[in-house]
Amino acid sequence: MLIVDQSAESREVLCALLARSGTSSIEASRAAEAVTLAEQLRPQLIVLDADSDSSVERQALRELTATARRTNTPIVLLGKITGAEIAFDPSELLAKPYHYGQLIRRIESVLEQRRAAAA
C-alpha cells in the first residue's frame, strides 16, 4: 500500500495502524515521489492526501491518478478535490477531519471489493 501525505506524522501513524493488521506500506511525502513508487512497485491501493495549493503538486497529483487508472490501482482520497483539479473518480473519498478508525475501515472495504472482483 502506498501512503501519500505531506505530514510525516500522519504517514507514520497510518503505517503503524496498517502494520498491526499485517499490511505493509510504503510512504511518499509528495505526489511526484509517489508517481515513481506507484509505477515501480504497483501497490494494491494508494491512500492520497490531496490537500495542496501548489500548482506543481496538483500536476503531480494528476500524474499519480493517471498512473493509478492505468495500473487499475484503487485510490482512497483524503480531503477535498474538484473535477477540474483531477479527472479521476477515487474508489473512496474521505473528508477531513477524519478518524483513523474510519480510514482503516474504508481501506479494508476497498481491498475487500478488489478481492471479490478478482475472484
Question: Care to describe what's here?
Answer:
- Helix 2 packs parallel to helix 3.
- The relative contact order is 0.16.
- This protein has a five-stranded parallel beta sheet, with helices on both faces.
- Helix 3 links the parallel strand 3 and strand 4.
- The chain has a single domain, classed as Rossmann fold (3-Layer(aba) Sandwich).
- The chain has 119 residues and is α/β, with parallel strands linked by helices.
- One of its GO terms (biological process) is phosphorelay signal transduction system.
- Keywords: Phosphoprotein.
- It comes from Aeoliella straminimaris.
- This is Response regulatory domain-containing protein.
Q: Can you give keywords for this protein?
A:
Rossmann fold, 4 helices, 119 residues, five-stranded parallel β-sheet, 14% strand, 5 strands, alpha/beta
Q: CATH homologous superfamily?
A: Response regulator
Corresponding CATH architecture: 3-Layer(aba) Sandwich
Number of domain modules? 1
CATH first level: which class? Answer: Alpha Beta
Give the end-to-end Cα distance, rounded to a whole number of Å: 20 Å
Question: Helical amount among residues, as a percent range?
Answer: 40-55%
Care to count the β-strands? 5
CATH topology: Rossmann fold
Please count the helical segments. 4
* Low-pLDDT segments, ≥5 res: none
Name the overall outline.
globular
User: What pattern of helices and strands is seen along the backbone?
Assistant: EHEHEHEEH
Task: Write a short abstract of this structure.
The chain is of the alpha/beta class and 119 residues long. The protein is 50% helix and 14% strand.
